[in-house]
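RECORD TYPE: protein structure
NAME: Serine hydrolase
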Amino acid sequence: MKRLSISIVAFLLMTIGSFAQEKEYKPLIDVFVKDYNTNDYDDIYKHFSPSLKEELPSAKAKSFFVEMKEKLGNIKSMEFYGLDDNRLALFKTEFENNEVALLNLAMNDTGEVVGFRILDMPAPKDDSFKKMSIEEIIVTETLNLPEKGQYAIALIDNDKVTYHGFKNNGKDVRVEDNADKQFSVANLMTVFTSTVLAQAATDKKIEMTSNVNKYYDFNFNKNLKLPFIALANHSSFVPMLPETSSKSTMSEDDFLTKFTSTQLEEYLANDLTIDSANSERRQSFSFLGYAILGNTLSKVYNTPFDKLIQENVFNKYKMTNSSVSIPKKKKNMVKGISLNHKDVYPIQVGALLPSSGGISTAEDMAKFVQAEFNEKDAVLQLTQKPTLIVSPNYWVSLGWKIGYPFESGEPLYFTRGIDSGYSNYVAFNPVAKKGIVILSNSSSEAALNALDALSYKLVVKVFEDK
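PREDICTED:
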């Protein structure tokens, strides 16, 4: 369809109150269609929430609807289409110029509009891959990686693991023996940090709902309180990253890479703030939140963070080729591919390590996933316990996202990591005792799209195929 130059996309809330059924949306839709077709844009604006009005002044909202009317004409019909991935209502909308689009509407529990978008109608879903073998699927998506891009994949069925490795050589795709090769784990490290958090709770060293503040000998800025559980499930709303110091002569990347625990604590004392732009959401991912969590766990155990991960995760689950530190000798490490197609290695980070860092292999990650199946492992069972409901089909535990995509109603625990030159995806169903590990050495847009496609197809093949 013809693209509008502006769109109203602010504050798409993901609260349970927002997930009305079709009949609950109908009064607002009827009013919207009437007001839109009669050019009564001021009345539409009256239904905007205060937060949306703050982000979108009346004049800008009016120019959006004027442009929409000029390009698409009046609305001929609207009918409920379904819910998007965030469980927000979609309406199939037919306009006078015969364009058909999806209107994506978000409402809060008081019936106010908190988000509005016009989207293209999706193309019919292509499920032809279901007739392909797993190897054919992987080869197809490997072709979408840059030259030298590769996948190291582990498919887990209880105590059985099948490994697949493929590499794009530019002209073709070849089998690659890389199950024991090291890749950056990127922000998959948050799962390992959460495992240490669960260990601390199991050891009765902390209470999950207690604040981390008690482990510091100073007050946090603005006397803000940060519960362990909120940092772990990203509902604390601390910013994604600390702001680069105005006094620093380093680039932002260098500043964040070399960000120390001393700087972190100075930030907590003097600059800690809440990300108000995201405070109406149920959660907002934060590298900084996990840095605070890891720093606090070091205080709880009086042990360096890297040692906590080594002892409570890598050693415990026999992940012998995994490490928090980047070794000087990198013979066993797969080189990442930067956005400008240069070879890169994972970067050793400082205080942000609990949120992104370290290396592992498909073999080691398969061991970790298999450990998740052990119902007697109190620590990992605690990491699987839901702590936040983002939407009816999207929950969060400690480090893991939880989806419910299967007709059986069984959960899918999953996470995706992205680092400079690397990306990954890990998922498992603890009921069926099946899992997937995908490690890649590229994080370009094309590579991430390929990872999304590959993970979706493998989830269908591994978890749904009978």
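COMMENT: The CA atoms of residues 145 and 250 lie 32 Å apart.
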